[in-house]
Design goal:
Rossmann fold; 3 domains; 341 residues; D-amino Acid Aminotransferase, Chain A, domain 1; four-stranded parallel sheet
Length: 341
């Protein structure tokens, strides 16, 4: 069996988050090699349909999809699994519908609302509190900094801020309520028994962040030399008093998996309001698989070998569609005991 590890083209001048695609690709290629699977790199430089044709012509039984952008934007990333399906080439990860619904943060809110999963509300003039400006389509803390948070803005101030974001970074932007409190990342993987939650991680805010607010802005996520990066470490260690909260987060993450029709692997990010409780701030159908990223850290915490999971994603791509669990229980996967439900 041959596997094409597909990525989007990345220029030498690309931003750090785009260059990370190269790190992911090398890591997955090495992992599949260690697992005894023949894999080769395939760069998508002429669109999803041409990539599907090339993969098929090169004898790929499976495409390992690491494409995060089409024509420089995540807005069309869902076209890749759609092209593979048309070409009848198996593809890892979520399908095009799940990719589209989760990549667009506006569509994401619609899905969450229909599933009655709590999420921060969209901006409405006149409401009190702080509001955070985000890209509609781009993830990875794209464009987030101290100026991304506004306190009780009127309609004119919000419009001016969104216009400035579009001028600076391009693309579409929106605003949602800023949720103070703790931040958690929950990675999920597909197993023969359905989706399972990996050990939850918390981003620990060791000091005030952008403008005095606790957020994972661009510098905290990507600039290893920055103070923001140093003061936002990841932890998997929790006191027993957090047990009920972690169980609730796990249940909500699994409900997201089902609501969006996710497959293979995913990550759900939460903020926990001191009074209102957990809210979903992001659903990521193709989280970063680099060895130093949160997903790999969760695998390591669970005692799961990176190469075994990458090989498993390939095998699942070739098999039947995922099992959806009704009223699923959060099961934190570990190698020592199959789950800690």
């Amino acid at each position: 069996m041959r596997v094409a590890v597909l990525r989007n083209a990345v220029s030498p001048q690309a931003a750090l988050e785009d260059q990370d695609t190269l790190t992911q690709t090398l890591a997955v290629l090495a992992a599949l090699d260690r697992a005894g699977i023949e894999a080769f790199e395939l760069v998508m430089d002429r669109g999803p349909d041409e990539a599907a044709r090339q993969a098929k012509a090169l004898g790929a039984a499976v495409v390992f999809n690491l494409v995060e952008a089409v024509d420089g934007s995540a807005r069309q990333a869902h076209l890749v699994p759609a092209a593979m399906r048309r070409a009848e080439v198996a593809c890892t990860g979520s399908g095009s519908r799940a990719m589209l619904l989760s990549t667009s943060k506006i569509l994401c809110k619609t899905v969450l609302a229909r599933a009655e999963i709590p999420a921060p509300p969209l901006f409405r003039p006149g409401l009190p509190g702080d509001w955070i400006i985000k890209s509609v389509w781009e993830h990875a803390s794209f464009g987030l900094d101290a100026d991304s948070i506004l306190s009780a803005p009127d309609r004119r101030t919000m419009r001016r801020t969104l216009t400035r974001a579009r001028s600076t970074h391009g693309g579409a932007w929106f605003a949602e309520a800023f949720v103070p409190g703790r931040e958690f990342n929950l990675a999920l993987i597909r197993t023969p028994k359905g989706p399972r939650v990996l050990p939850p991680a918390e981003i620990r805010f060791d000091a005030a962040g952008s403008g005095g607010h606790h957020i994972v802005d661009w510098a905290a996520k990507w600039d290893e030399s920055s103070a923001a990066y140093a003061r936002t470490p990841r932890t998997f260690d929790f006191p027993t008093s957090d047990k009920n909260l972690l169980t609730t987060l796990g249940r909500l993450a699994l409900r997201c998996w089902e609501a969006f029709g996710l497959d293979g692997y995913a990550r759900v990010d939460f903020r926990v309001h001191p009074q209102d409780g957990p809210m979903v701030i992001d659903v990521n159908a193709n989280p970063c698989l680099s060895p130093d990223a949160g997903f790999a850290a969760a695998l390591d915490r669970a005692g799961l070998a990176y190469e075994a999971v990458m090989a498993g994603l390939v095998e699942f791509a070739r098999g039947p569609r995922p099992l959806l669990l009704r009223n699923p229980k959060p099961c934190f996967v570990s190698a020592a005991s199959s789950t800690t439900c």
